[in-house]
Amino acid sequence: MSMRIQFSHHGGIEVLQYLSYQPAPLGAQEVLVKNHAIGLNFIDIYYRSGLYPPPALPSGLGSEGAGVVAAIGSEVKDFQVGERVAYATAPLGAYSQLHAVPADKLVKLPDAISFEQAAAVMLKGLTVQYLLRQTYPVKAGETILWHAAAGGVGLLACQWAKALGVKLIGTVSSAQKAQSAKAAGAWQVIDYSREDVAARVLELTQEAKCPVVYDSVGKDTWETSLDCLAPRGLLVSFGNASGSVEGVNLGTLTQKGSIYITRPTLFHYANNAKNLRQMAAELFELMKSGQIKAHIGARYPLADAPQAQAQLAARKTQGSSILLP
Ligand SMILES: NC(=O)c1ccc[n+]([C@@H]2O[C@H](COP(=O)([O-])OP(=O)(O)OC[C@H]3O[C@@H](n4cnc5c(N)ncnc54)[C@H](OP(=O)(O)O)[C@@H]3O)[C@@H](O)[C@H]2O)c1
Fold first, then answer.
1. How far is the C-alpha of 89 from the C-alpha of 86, rounded, in Å?
2. What are the pLDDT tens digits along the chain (325 aa)?
3. 140-263: what CATH class?
4. How far is the CA of 238 from the centre of ligand 1 (A)?
5. Most buried among 175, 254, 285, 319, using CB within 10 Å?
6. Distance 157 CA to ligand 1 centre (A)
7. Which residue numbers delimit the Enoyl reductase (ER) domain (predicted)?
């Protein structure tokens, strides 16, 4: 038996239950991971609320964790019992003491990276990897705009951009968050709760605006993001923290300067073991060299996952939060 967070209906944090459960018999290609630390992500809130539908209810929650291999399926070749591993794209159910993860969604965790650090960076760091290095491969000297720069994904983006010689303008909602984003490597910070972002971007870029804007806030920042893009720039809309963007009039993209737009997800970039492990290797190298550090803003016992989600949704967290089983 093991303990996990489960939900049977969509709704607020009250639908999350901490229950004992019996993991299903291990599939031939699966690895049973004894979690030591679990990542808290905004996507977990979308699954709980029903914005993203889970495959079935009742359902476990969470896609990210780090721990030790407790058992392997009969056809698993790459992993052994006792090995340190981490994952970011597992089927829902990571909010748990034990989680069965398909072997092709696991990476080996270098000794230099702790379980807590791994749970803080796997999903968010791999996201930054594909956004900065694949969706739009940024070049040294470019100036880019990144919303919610003091969040979990945001603080990793500030560091990664700096490591690449890119000038990241980060938006945040408070002076304290501005300080964190600056400390992590943001070139400039704009408080979007009180400043005119488009006007500041125009000023900071000497009217050139940005070749790319990374927007995970969604509904509230959509118009602003378009206004911060140079002609033929790319809007990377990768999240919905304030609600999803709907009813887009394509003519708007013409009026704003023949804008390109993409709505990507990590699951289509880390879509096989080779891609996942290459992306993770790049992230781990930057961590080992000290260019990227995990900012763990809060740790919660697994049973307190509802409170952790409430803090994240209320914009009260900075950096990554983790759950400890
Ligand atoms: N597509 C992908 O592949 C992918 C992968 C990972 C994450 N994501 C997305 O990236 C975003 C960041 O994820 P995260 O887990 O690291 O979360 P996070 O950035 O730590 O938290 C979300 C942040 O968004 C900002 N925000 C702005 N308006 C908000 C609102 N109305 N409600 C709540 N927050 C609001 C807040 O920062 P301020 O207070 O500074 O505004 C808040 O701290 C999420 O939208 C997530 O879905 C996408």
1. 10
2. 899 999 999 999 999 999 999 988 999 999 999 999 999 999 999 999 999 999 999 999 999 999 999 999 999 999 999 999 999 999 999 999 999 999 999 999 999 999 999 999 999 999 999 999 999 999 999 999 999 999 999 999 999 999 999 999 999 999 999 999 999 999 999 999 999 999 999 999 999 999 999 999 999 999 999 999 999 999 999 999 999 999 999 999 999 999 999 999 999 999 999 999 999 999 999 999 999 999 999 999 999 999 999 999 999 999 999 999 9
3. alpha beta
4. 9
5. 319
6. 12
7. 11-323
CA dist 267 and 269 (Å) reads 6
* Per-domain boundaries in the chain: 2-121+270-324, 140-263
Q: What gap in Å lies between CA 90 and CA 97, rounded to an integer?
A: 14
Question: Which is nearest to 62 in space by CA: 308, 284, 269?
Answer: 308
Question: At the topology level of CATH, where does 2-121+270-324 sit?
Answer: Quinone Oxidoreductase; Chain A, domain 1 (3.90.180)
For 99-108, b/e burial (b = at least 16 CB within 10 A) is bbbbbbbbbe
Q: Tell how far the Cα of 69 is from the centroid of ligand 1, in angstroms.
A: 31
